[in-house]
User: Fold these one by one.
Assistant:
Number 1:
Amino acid sequence: MSSRSTTNGRPGIATSSVHAGCPESRPGSPVVQPIVRSSTFHWAGPDDGLDLRYSRYGNNPNQLAVAGKIAALEGTEAGLALASGMAAISMTILSAAGAGDHVVASRHLYGATHALLSGELPKRGITTTFVEPSDPAAWEAALTPRTRVVLIELPTNPTLRVFDIEPARRAARSAGAILAADMTFATPVNIRAAEHGVDAVIHSATKYLGGHSDLIAGVVAGSRELIAGVTKMMKLYGGSIDPGAAWLLERGMRTLPARMDRHNRNAHALARWFTTVEGVREVIYPGLARHPDHKLATRLMGGYGGMVSIVLEGGGSAADTFCSKLRLAAPAPSLGGVETLVSQPRHTSHVDLASAERDALGIPDGFVRISVGLEDLEDLKADFGAAAHAVLAPS
Ligand SMILES: *Cc1c(COP(=O)(O)O)cnc(C)c1O
């Protein structure tokens, strides 16, 4: 298990994360590209030999830097930066499907993606069949002659399931549909989805790609043709990224492999340690042999990721106490930043479900999702250890 390095003469992922997408250096040029706030760019006409530049088109220098960097990190022909992860997902789907068309999607999806597919797109004539992604036959069985998009997400939130991409890829190919994958939890450091046949690799860049909980953004990587289609939708629906956010995102992406290496190691060590902590009933992490997808995760992933989930013996009230006693880790939604955050799905992503429904999804009361940050492991253990102790011995 190590992050990927130089192959076939192509720069390795750490080199790409630092250099790709940046303009070539010249004597006197700035080492760091400035934020170009200009909404428009001088252009007299086609004889200028340049494309028309306008920041809603996604071709501002800061937007282009992110686009070039994500394409290099994913190993695809092209990339695109957008205003949010949801803009990346919705523009990708709308680029491939219209009224009368059909989507086959994993039933384990980010809440807003599920709401878009089940509540919003049907109003525009696009229907979705949700399938159980761990059943390889389910993908093929759900296809219709109008299936245009097959959508998968891994690892899943918050149960950290890892599914085989291959059955979804085969179904997409046989239908002539695109295979889109939300790889937010994995990052290109842990899985390069295009190498597994994913056509549209999507991230909420708000999370690990930005990495500092200080921006909202999304990215898509794929073939030139696919990205041209998504860009067309982005221009029309107006989902382009602000140059300031693009600059910050490009800066964050420079350290992605270095950060992921530590997220992976901190999370793995913390998960192992949690298995020894009194009052913790279950520890969910793809790197543990007890995880249902451990073998597959080992085959697919360069690292097991920075997310760990635990289930406390005392249920919801124990989890409330546990979270309230933390001093270093902070309760907040979102993930993927340098700081450790905790959240309870019953209060956030899964608040609309009844306790029994959450139970059936593998999210019993007492479930705490942890986005493990870059702090010293011993400090994190001390913080979580004290909180677990406070649950068992209320003062
Ligand atoms: C956060 C998230 C999104 C949505 O991203 P935004 O940047 O908030 O629009 C989509 N998918 C996953 C897996 C996420 O974690």
Note: Residues 105 and 151 are 5 Å apart (CA to CA).
Number 2:
Amino acid sequence: MFFRQNLTRRDALLVMVGASCVYLFLAAASYGLQTTPTLTVEGPLTQISLERERKIVTMLSTLTVTATTTETTTHLASPTPTLQSTLIDLGLEPDIPETSIVAHAPGWTLFRNLYMSNGTLFLLTSDSSLADFPEIRMMTSTGLEAQNTPENIAAREPTKENMDFISPADARARWGGDYTKGERNRVWTVEGNTLLFNDPPQFLNHYYHFVAELLLGTWAFIYGAFHPATGLMSSSSSPPSISAAFNQPSFNVQDNATYQPPPFTRAIFIHSDTHGWRDSPGFNAYFLRAVFPALTVEVQRDWEDRVMATVPDKSGDRSTLTADRAWHFPIALLTDRSAAHRGVVCGSQTQRTAAEAWHYMVDNGGVDRVGAWWGNIREAIWRFASATPIAQAPLKHASDGKFMDLQLADPGETVITYISRQSSRRRLIQEDHEGLVTALEELVNRKRQEGKHWELNIVQAERMTKDEQVRVMSKSTILLGVHGNGLTHLVLMQPTRVSAVVEIFFPGGFAHDYEWTSRALGMRHFSVWNDTYFTHPNEPRVDYPEGFQGISIPVYGPAVAKLVEDQLEHKLPS
Ligand SMILES: *[C@@H]1O[C@H](CO)[C@@H](O)[C@H](O)[C@H]1NC(C)=O
Ligand SMILES: *[C@@H]1O[C@H](CO)[C@@H](O)[C@H](O)[C@H]1NC(C)=O
Ligand SMILES: *[C@@H]1O[C@H](CO)[C@@H](O)[C@H](O)[C@H]1NC(C)=O
């Protein structure tokens, strides 16, 4: 309504040009889609009316025009999401959409309509009881590095500067325009789906914590949250114009077998600079780019730009902005390590932040227990590294064919990979390393004499390219090594009925890092203390005794070879 009287012939032409661009964009975006987009923008100007329903905002360098098509073939409520509006513009909305929570576990919160102004994340709600919201401290923190001191624990408790609630009236007073005067709301949508990582570099710059905690937990959470079986996405209310989550080409819910969650548009490392999320071997960046090639990464400096853009600009004589703005995130997953540690599963059981995300989604039926949920990621990185994983039988469904009763198949071939750490600081007694290699070689030779295709790889990861590492790990049935970052590669393994990780600890030592992760991905894990092993649910208590980090870790090779053989031959009680 607002622009009708101002539309000149030149403007009208620009509308047409803009609409054509949108059409071409949609046509290009839909190329190769499995679902056919039903949104079309009709060409003739006469069909462009200025109604509110379906807005297409076309920004040209000289002009901004809000136009609406009369197309009505898509509805948010339709069971098959289809391509909908292109850009969300809240500039002229009388009601700024309220925040809702799609899914929440300690440290993991998926929001619809999250706002940020002056560095504070705002939850916009008219519900003054806040009954539908978790405690803020279970969602976020100040993002400081963690140390185990009472002062530091207190300093990580979030304040109202980190996250706060805001009522619709206050939001309108703060960010709303007077639209009787044609003013726009100062609320700017950050299109697409956003990952907000609130952690400092302390744990980000480490392959295990980045890939096997942060990305693994992120994927478990978004995979589960969007999975139709959980109903989480459909039960969280949303105004019809806010359909970004469904506005994604590869989001396909036609059947459970081909389900994928929608792609995420950007990751923002709120408290990390550009080096802070990179590890020294370079696996974090390799993994992130291989698996999410289109993901845009923003770091702290970019977040500061966004913060600065929301506050009145005091520089110059004539500031044009006298009130603040807000950014609007239609879909955002906020992760916070300190908040995850305030949860029971992470804080007292596993010390894994990802465990909060995974357990929540298992409980909601969005994530299976055999690692199928991680398949998209695994396969993406295999493709990137040109790995040719051993052909595996597909997952078997239990008799009623249900998603949650998937069962793993037997491996096509048997590959044992021992990651040697003999040139690293934490390592085996050299003789014991040699004894282990001999015992494994004897095992594999014996199996070959029996006519079986068993393969043994003894690898030093630091001497291999990343692609080579992925290729070896992707076909490994057993991954074996001393406790350490190299075992993070277990995330690349294809789970089968006998897949397992064998982790050698200094006797008396134990940590959940690879143990929990192996099981979350559908594989068994064995902790070895020299000639003895433990497995879930009888794993030892977490402990880091003297010698844990040392260069004299003992292991009795024949016992490990026997364990490996028994696991591969189904001789162990499950
Ligand atoms: C923005 O936040 C800072 C604290 O982080 C505060 O000192 C400042 O007053 C705020 N500015 C506005 C415009 O609200
Ligand atoms: C997908 O899985 C859920 C839960 O296992 C089931 O209820 C639903 O019927 C399945 N849908 C299809 C299309 O198979
Ligand atoms: C490891 O186990 C072997 C075989 O039982 C034993 O001979 C050896 O003394 C053990 N080593 C240590 C350090 O306990």
Note: The first strand starts at residue 55 and ends at 60.
